Amino acid sequence: xxxxxxxxxxxxxxxxxxxxxxxxxxxxxxxxxxxxxxxxxxxxxxxxxxxxxxxxxxxxxxxxxxxxxxxxxxxxxx
Length: 78
Fold this sequence. Notes:
Blueprint: H1 5-13, H2 17-33, H3 42-57, H4 65-76
């Protein structure tokens, strides 16, 4: 017999915060293993194409990964 939504929700609420974070990481890793199976909406494709076109026509408009990390950390104190 399979797990029902009610029993899944109840068991999820029993997890600690660190266990929930680990579950999210595990789910993300599983999805990342087969990216072609992850659905993408038309509006997401259009937004990605728009951003890529903007970056290609204005290469200096993008940020390096180090710059992005620095900005995020300065906003969130980490």
